[in-house]
Amino acid sequence: IRACLNMASGSEGAGNPPTKLQRPPNRLGLEKSSYLLQHAHNPVDWYPWGQEAFDKAKQEDKPIFLSVGYSTCHWCHVMERESFEDEEIGKILSDNFVCIKVDREERPDVDKVYMTFVQATSGGGGWPMSVWLTPDLRPFLGGTYFPPRDSGRRPGLKTVLARIMEQWVDNRDGLESSGERVLEALKKGTSIATNPGETPPPAPDVAYRCFAQLAHSYEEEYGGFRDSPKFPSPVNLMFLMSFWSVNRSSSEGAEALQMTLHTLRMMALGGIHDHVGQGFHRYSTDSSWHVPHFEKMLYDQAQLAVAYVTAYQVSGEQVFSDVAQDILLYVSRDLSDKSGGFYSAEDADSLPALGGTEKREGAFCVWTWLEIRELLPAVVDGATGGATEADIFMHHYGVKEQGNVDPEQDPHGELQGQNVLIVRYSVELTAARFALTVEKVSKLLASARAKMAEVRKSRPAPHLDTKMLASWNGLMLSGFARVGSVLDDKALLERAVHAARFLKEHLWDAERQIILHSCYRGDEMEVEQGVSPIAGFLDDYAFVICGLLDLYEATLETDWLRWAEELQERQDHLLWDAEGGGYYCSNPADPTILLRLKQDQDGAEPSPNSVSSLNLLRLSHYTGRKDWSQRSQQLLAAFSDRLTRVPIALPEMVRGSMANHYTPKQVVICGERDAPDTSVLLATVNSLFLPHKVLMLANGETEGYLYQRLPVLSSLTRLEGRATAYVCEDFTCALPVADPQELRTLLLA
Hints:
Elements: H1 2-7, H2 34-37, E1 46-48, H3 51-60, E2 64-69, H4 74-84, H5 87-96, E3 98-103, H6 108-122, E4 129-133, E5 139-143, H7 157-170, H8 172-189, H9 203-217, H10 234-246, H11 251-269, E6 283-284, E7 292-293, E8 296-297, H12 298-315, H13 318-334, E9 345-346, E10 349-350, E11 360-361, H14 369-375, H15 389-396, H16 427-433, H17 438-457, E12 464-465, E13 468-469, H18 470-487, H19 490-506, E14 508-509, E15 514-515, E16 518-521, E17 527-528, H20 538-555, H21 558-575, H22 608-623, H23 626-638, H24 640-645, H25 651-661, E18 665-670, H26 676-686, E19 693-698, H27 705-709, E20 724-729, E21 732-733, H28 740-748
Parallel strand pairs: 1-3, 2-3, 18-19
Antiparallel strand pairs: 2-4, 4-5, 6-7, 8-9, 9-12, 10-11, 13-16, 14-15, 16-17, 18-20, 20-21
Helix pairs in contact: 5-7, 9-10, 9-25, 10-11, 10-12, 10-25, 12-13, 12-18, 13-18, 14-15, 15-17, 16-17, 18-19, 18-20, 19-20, 20-21, 20-22, 21-22, 22-23, 22-25, 23-25, 26-28
């Protein structure tokens, strides 16, 4: 992202040519991806990633131009408009290169390989990514955004293409050999494997080092882990709460919790949180979480919902529960398909409300002072100085007549005179300022937000990417299951079950026994598959398995546990590295993927290896399979070097290391699922943040899934016919309890 933003200073070009929609579609018109369809009317002879393009490059002995992006990427839109809509550039590309367009969200395997090359050769990365390859797919030059023509000291795309064409004729051997050298170095440099006899580093040491590294990068005033831009980083927050849970009485534990709760509070107050339409934007361009990059991604909503409901479990503060529900309201309303699936993202850019042909960042979300003044003109009874609803609202949310966006946060002038809502005062302080009750101000602010939401409905909406990915749907399944179980909200749990059924119906190929990576919303609102369905990647398996385990703990329906076990077996068969340990990100047998990568960073999404370290451990306790707990250890051992040196890069894997060290508690509730006494005990378990536990229901059905895998369950019985809880380690159990308070004490011991 950094490189994308740094390079994005080219001139605006001529805009969309008038013939764009009249031009017949190229090959991308047959694709399902929103991003590829955005380029279907370019005057470029685009191919999707596939054998047809590879064969053409070999037959015609032409270099490949690979362009990678995604549908809600601002600078991808800019490069499409400036360069790929340019007739002259389109002809140069089509005549001299085989041009391939890739949606990075559809083909993360392709994206990871060539982004690794771009980062290694240019020192940065981002999207759009532009890479030139030999006909056998080996990269020899790469970058991110290029302006169409030379701009200052930066060469334009036209110049770069001319130089490559010249070098391809005059210095082809040099291009190919330098690319080959870099690729060989990357193969060695990206290798992650266990040394013979190696064991994972000690979890308490790794966890303390991860805490210390996060504490060092923590920004105290507004929370978060850098000055700007600031990302939500839920993986950091989940690690810190897990660290606190085993260090509650230490000053480090207290500091970890304080950093987490302060960050979550500040984000909830900031402009990164959509106060009118709910949900969270991608990241903040400043240190105070005020002016965001306005796109909304499903994976952020999923992980933040879990982080906020976990903060509620830890602190008991209602605000965290409210924000978690707010996120799920947004996802249910705006990112949900009737099939049960979840859409991928909402764009940052949209057409201005007052008209215009050029989309602007944040146009859907921002407000002028005058708009709010005209929308909320009523004088409020009893308010000091005859204040109107607008006066009170604008005071509370920092609205200014000249706009509240610092020009530094608006380099292209798109937000001039606009306001991004940010909570500047507590409701109590706002109430005191206008001599009103807290209850009255709360109602007034809620009413004003509802009126503004109605106004938004009349604005041109940002583009919605209706692609549905197994991986991100797995994350969102966890979000609904976790929040639903903590809050005992039946509607949220029903939505989680609907999502799991969607995954099984539309993204599970029962015949081939594989997960499919993606499906799409068709023109008739039905779910469609692509012409060549994309086989699932590691993150599809890992995130769906995690979602199913969370759904089992929320509903205690063993069908979800059974499917999670099947998926783990398929993941092991397809993607486990039997020699070096850990999982490959994609099928290692695919000859078109030049690097066999194992993702070693928890970023915007957790590394699927990190998630798998926890999945394997949880499944071993549900199935009695010791080989899976051993495999979790082997996985951690493969990442030993990274965990030891820079655990801050893998906070989710550090959680997996901690879970292996602090043997998970098996919490067994003996009772009927829907009986009131069972529900009370389950509510007690779900009210607490217990990162190292597995929850199961023993309902007496000895022929059932769990009893068949864990025969010891048959020895656990109810006390005097009442629902009874057993808290065990490796099924060595403490004395059974039927009282919720006694259970709470036992769980916190």
